[in-house]
Design brief:
104 residues, 2 domains, 84% helix, flat
Amino acid sequence: MSRKAEDAAPANGRPTADVEAIEREHVEQLARAHAALAEAQDRSYWLERWGVDLNELMRRPGARRARGALRAVREVKRGALAVKRYGDARIRELRESAADDEQR
C-alpha cells in the first residue's frame, strides 16, 4: 500500500464511500470497454469470414462517393429524427395544455 493510500484509509480498514464510488466507476468503464471490444471482434470476424478487405474496398474509385452518399443519408435521417422529436414534444405540450384547459 502506498503512503497516500495509507493516509486515505480509515482506521477500521473498510474502504470509504469515495473509494467504493471510484471502484464502481472503474468496473463500469471496464464493462463498457469489454462490450466495445466484443462488438469490434464480432465485426472483424464477419468481415474476415466473408473475405472483405476494407482497406482494398476503400481504395476503389467509387468508395469516396459511396461514403459521401452514406453521410448524406445519415444527415437526412438525423434531421428527420430531430423533426420527429420536436413534433412529439410539441404534441405532448398541446395535449397537456388541452387537459389543463378541460380541468378549469
